[in-house]
Write a structure and sequence with these properties.
Blueprint: E1 11-15, H1 22-32, E2 45-49, H2 55-66, H3 75-100, E3 103-107, H4 110-120, H5 125-136, E4 143-148, H6 151-158, H7 171-187, E5 191-194, H8 199-223
Parallel strand pairs: 1-3, 1-4, 2-3, 4-5
Helix pairs in contact: 1-8, 2-3, 3-5, 4-5, 4-7
The protein binds P1-(5'-adenosyl)P5-(5'-thymidyl)pentaphosphate.
Length: 233
């Protein structure tokens, strides 16, 4: 159990291209985590997502994913809308939950902006990093997991569904995003899990990754003075 001398909750994020299985795995984790023995007694689990984790974010999500024609944002407007969604999400939902000692499990976070707007749209990564600092106030996940799936497999999985505005940006765009995720996972030392295996095998790998992360947090908590926090993504 995560029972170090700190009361802040933990912030866990799943990243990856559209169709890599985040929603499927988040729902499996949401069932497993509360009884896993990893969360402190009394801590709640909050399942959330970007874009759209707040009422304002819900409206922004509609603009981002379902606007067309004259209403479709240009790349820079798109970047700023994702940043606005994140600022609201961090300020009104994620940070208050972590301060209560709850755990937060999010479908996407800042890594998606670097992958889609940075590597995908070609907007400057240093500008994106500055915006991330403004939007998050410096908050970083305790653990980011990248569900790695070859693009063709992801496209096959999504073939039965209508594409949203981002997915409709085309295969070359999505290929840049997929390769951006790989670069980010290496540079930022995200935990990488192969997503081209049966859902139950992915869930087991995630559970193992969470046990390992909790072990690291426990060691840090015992090595640090009481009251300090240890975060590492
Ligand atoms: N975006 C987001 C940005 O451009 N910048 C940003 O900063 C942020 C935050 C959000 C869009 O916004 C973009 C990225 C996205 O394009 P969304 O609808 O919230 O879009 O999320 P998506 O990531 O697109 O969600 P999807 O539902 O498309 O994909 P998931 O959640 O990754 O995948 P999931 O679980 O729904 O699975 C897809 C299909 O595959 C099957 C499932 O049953 C389902 O049919 N499946 C598997 N099949 C075989 N083996 C497995 N292991 C499987 N796991 C799932």
């Amino acid at each position: 159990m995560d029972s170090g001398p700190r009361s802040r909750g933990r912030f866990l994020v799943l990243e990856g291209i559209d169709g890599c299985g985040k929603t499927t795995q988040l729902s499996a984790l949401a069932e497993w985590l509360p009884g896993s023995g990893l969360m402190p007694e009394g801590a709640a689990l909050l399942l959330t997502r970007e874009p759209g984790g707040t009422p304002l974010g819900h409206a922004l999500r509609e603009l981002l994913l379902h606007s067309g024609g004259d209403q479709a944002p240009c790349s820079t407007a798109e970047l700023l809308l994702y940043a606005a969604d994140r600022a609201q999400h961090v300020a009104t939902t994620i940070t208050p939950a972590l301060e209560r000692g709850d755990w937060v499990l999010s479908d996407r976070f800042a890594g998606s902006t670097a992958a889609y707007q940075g590597y995908g749209r070609g907007l400057p990564l240093d500008l994106i990093a500055q915006l991330e600092t403004i939007a998050t106030g410096g908050l970083q996940p305790d653990l980011t997991v990248w569900l790695a799936l070859p693009l063709q497999r992801a496209l096959e999985r999504r073939s039965a569904r209508a594409a949203d505005r981002i997915e409709a940006a085309g295969e070359r765009f999505l290929a840049r995003v997929a390769s951006g995720f790989q670069t980010l996972a290496e540079e930022c030392r995200w935990c990488t899990i192969a997503a081209d295996q049966p859902p139950q095998a992915v869930t087991q790998a995630l559970q193992q990754a969470l046990h390992q992360a909790a072990g690291r947090w426990q060691s840090l908590a015992t090595a640090r003075p009481a009251g300090s926090t240890g975060a590492g993504r």
